What we know:
Distance between the termini of chain B: 43 Å
CATH superfamily of chain A: Beta-grasp domain
Largest interface: A-B, 18 and 39 residues
CATH architecture of chain A: Roll
Order of helices and strands of chain A: EEHEEE
Shape of chain A: globular
Number of domains of chain A: 1
Mean pLDDT of chain B: 96
Distance between the termini of chain A: 36 Å
Oligomer: heterodimer
Low-confidence stretches of chain B: none
CATH topology of chain A: Ubiquitin-like (UB roll)
Amino acid sequence: MTVINGKQTPEAAGKKLTQYLEENGYDAARIAVECDGEILPKKMYEKKIIGEDETIEIVSFVGGG
Amino acid sequence: MYYADIYNMEEIFYTLDERHTETVRRKLWEARVGIGGIGGLGSHTAVALARCGVGHIHIVDDDTVELSNINRQAYFLRHVGRKKTEALAELIAEINPYIEVKADCVRVTEENISRLFAEDEIICEAFDDAENKAVFVNEVLTSLPDAVVISGSGMAGFSDTNLIRTRRAGSRLYICGDEKNGLETGQKLMAPRVMACASHQANMAVRLILERKTAAEKTEM
Lengths: 65, 221
């Protein structure tokens, strides 16, 4: 089962990551993506297809420090 | 260094041993923490780590202390106009003059991150801008395979400080903050929530230092 940010998201499996990010309103310049606990380098976003049993964490950063 | 003439290292170690135990003091004294950005989050994180007795603190920022920083950053009016690296090194020395401070007065860019932070095993992300935070976290995790990042995200305004927490977001990534209340919401940065978030970052660094296994402990297992 595909899990994204802690939620079971079977409909995302097989989708391009860039498509998922766009559909869900993520700003690619403000995120970090972890696949099964490991960072997905930015340059891999275009090629990345979301896997069926993958656990994905999309961290969206907000400003202030 | 003025305070080093008054208090010798043994005295300071003795008081830390009494309060933290000798084992804890030794582990923290040998540790090294890097901090990218020393505004509100980074300056308070560094002060907390210095009080704990972390022996090697690496601070990176090219900013100058401004009057507008004083509402939330660890600096004092006497620091206005001085480089933040210099002002923070002074504050750390006033807490513990024997801490080794490596101060890089350099603008952090995607290109220089892997070189600047190559020697830091634990790195706190403490920038202001959301895009800079993302660039920093992505670059550290991609180019420095042994580094752990503790990032601050979501501490603007004056809503409930209980919303600020630490969560593990990856094998080498921790996020401190509420992840919602950013500058984008129009809220401003104020000392209490900024300090709460910085304390989460400092405490996560302390936990990682004290809970990790030494090489000797690993071979015993």
